[in-house]
Write the structure tokens for this entry.
Amino acid sequence: MIPTFYKEIGARLVCIKKGTKSPGVPAWTKIEDRYDCPSKKFDPNVHNKVGWILDYTPLVIDIDTHDPSKDGYAALQRLSDNLGVDLYEKATVVVKSPSGGAHLYFWKDPEVKLPKSSKEYAGLDFLSSGSQVIIAGSRHDDHSGSYVFERESEFIAPVGVAALHEALSDKQTETRVTTTVDPPEDRPGDEFNKSDRALEHVKSHMSQEGYSFKHKGDHYEFTRPGKTDTNFAISGTLGRKSKLRKFGKVVVRNKIKLDMIFQGGRRGKSYKKREKKRRREKISNQ
């Protein structure tokens, strides 16, 4: 019933009864059951779905099609155009719902909290800590068929959460909130996140975004796009077990949280104003 993908990423899981999408269990957000326990608890006579209890690091973009006046796919396209990134194509893991909707899986910076929804992008939900999402293999109560993987990968893509937060906060300024949490302990499946292959994967993505690298022993020093050897300044370090430093503060420990790299550190208001102006000009010229 439960795909091994959720075992590999160390997902916290809960069985859900037929006729409801809610776990219906007291304090379900604190459940620590992993793959083996819910696999044993699942009773097909009682349950027809399983929920993934999300922590601060995962981000699931839920594309809804239930309400004709709130087209989730159209909203996703508008958001992608605003960000300059096709979020549907960027997602390496996509689960399709029998209702026609979809769940896009990403990793994000755990210190940044996103609004769960936005009036500007009605039809989209941004699910993270405090939420649960129905996993692949589950059955739908109102539509025939199961939730299925349209796209599956052992590598969940990071999302540029700073730009996403800014895009959503442009419409909901009251949601500009950050939350600091302790780094999570290693979970099953984190071996890949600390492997040389994961390091090269992230380095390749960063290079495509314009970052430059200098090899320094067992790690790399990198600079943000636009910097050259003549004005070389270290933006951070990247290594299989190294720490990424920005402005003298350790902000990430492993590859899961490296989406912050794509933002090149925390930027000031003047930079954000220029970026917003650049995106508006780009859209108007299309």
Q: What stands out?
A: The radius of gyration is 20 Å. The chain has a mean pLDDT of 79.
